[in-house]
From TrEMBL:
UniProt cofactor note: Binds 1 [4Fe-4S] cluster. The cluster is coordinated with 3 cysteines and an exchangeable S-adenosyl-L-methionine.
Binding residue positions for (3R)-3-methyl-D-ornithine: 123, 169
Region (Disordered), start-end ranges: 334-357
Protein name, as recorded: Iron-only hydrogenase maturation protein HydE
Keywords of this entry: 4Fe-4S, Iron, Iron-sulfur, Metal-binding, S-adenosyl-L-methionine, Transferase
Sequence intervals crossing the membrane: none
Boundaries of every Radical SAM core domain copy: 35-256
Length: 357
């Protein structure tokens, strides 16, 4: 699919016309990754963050939230709960927290691997190569790092670097692949200033990076951030500004599936936040094949407020998980068993072995 065709679909409106895109994406999903929906247990291990990102409620300047950092015993208990619920993976997510040390995380990963059969995914922001290699050696399988937008000027405006550093998430993703991780990335949809051309370039970059996982979601403004204050927001001209809409999110999921046929693509909590009735199900019917139920203890879950009014904050992990399974099965889909590794990873290993002497 060329850029002009991506742009055409991004600008297409009307369910009668878009139904063709939904159908193509669902057929591609069925053909290349099958009927399974893989469940990942999300553990939000810390809401401390050293960054000043203009869109995230965890940013260091937000003094209105209580900060927490889970203990290793609490995290391992969540991992055991995820395993008991039948999930094949835990995703440990945090703000960019300097309190998460290299050795502590190394030991935690080894303990989870020793006590469970779970795959371990990390989503801990930009970390030094030494730490990332140590965690892979401890048994971490995957790393999620959204690049948010591929346009450098827009990225810098919403994601200020730490003093004395320059952020280059695209380069870091390439290194993570070399280290041996399954790599996941994605973008926000409808960032103020994001154009249709920007978003089409982002989608093409998913394919160029050969991503194993692709996570996208709508920009949802948080009131305690610069982008949550209307007087500080700079939009693109109306004809070019991408809307942060539910429909646009489905378009990006569908186009990502058509370009990255064997990647794992989640139907995200953000979709459930903007459409509590059927957001996840619609994402699954338009190219997605992964859902990440939250197994974070309730005392912490409400404090991990990247954006406001996040879905499922008040539900227990067990209740939400059982309800989610019923809803997935009602769609005629099956619950994936085991780790749910990305089919793209096995394909990449095969392609690599073919060219090695």
């Amino acid at each position: 699919m060329e850029k002009q065709e991506i742009l055409r679909w991004l600008r297409t409106t009307g369910e009668d016309r878009l139904s063709r895109l939904w159908q193509m994406a669902d057929q591609a999903r069925r053909r290349h990754v099958g009927q399974d929906v893989h469940l990942r247990g999300l553990i939000e291990i810390s809401n401390h963050c050293s960054r000043r990102c203009g869109y995230c409620g965890l940013n260091v300047h937000n003094s209105s939230i209580g900060r927490y950092r889970m203990t290793d015993d609490e995290i391992v208990a969540c991992a055991h709960q995820a395993s008991a619920l039948g999930y094949g993976t835990v995703v440990m997510q945090a703000g960019e927290d300097p309190g998460i040390g290299k050795q502590w995380m190394h030991d935690l990963i080894r303990r989870i691997k020793r006590e469970t059969d779970l795959a371990v995914t990390l989503s801990l922001g930009e970390r030094p190569d030494e730490e990332l290699c140590s965690w892979f050696d401890a048994g971490a399988d995957r790393y999620l790092l959204r690049f948010e937008t591929s346009r450098r000027s827009l990225y810098d405006s919403i994601h200020p670097p730490l003093a004395g550093t320059m952020s280059d998430r695209i380069a870091l993703l390439r290194r993570l692949k070399l280290f041996g991780y399954e790599i996941g990335s994605g973008v926000m949809i409808g960032i103020p200033g994001q154009t249709y051309d920007d978003l089409a370039t982002d989608i093409l970059l998913f394919k160029e990076l050969d991503l194993d996982m692709i996570g996208v979601g709508p920009f949802i403004p948080h009131q305690a951030t610069p982008l949550g204050r209307p007087d500080q927001v700079a939009y693109a001209v109306p004809a070019e500004q991408v809307p942060n809409s539910e429909e646009m999110t489905y378009k990006v999921i569908a186009l990502s599936r058509l370009l990255c046929l064997r990647a794992n693509i989640p139907s995200t909590t953000a979709l459930a936040t903007i459409n509590s009735e059927s957001g996840r199900e619609l994402g699954l019917s338009r190219g997605a094949n992964v859902v990440m139920p939250n197994v974070t203890p309730g005392a912490y879950r409400a404090l991990y407020e990247i954006y406001p009014s996040k879905a499922c904050v008040d539900e227990t992990a067990a209740d939400f998980g059982s309800g989610l399974v019923r809803r997935i099965r009602s769609m005629g889909r099956t619950i994936g068993r085991g780790r749910g590794d990305s089919p793209n990873l096995s394909g990449r290993k095969s392609r690599t072995s073919e060219v090695l002497p």
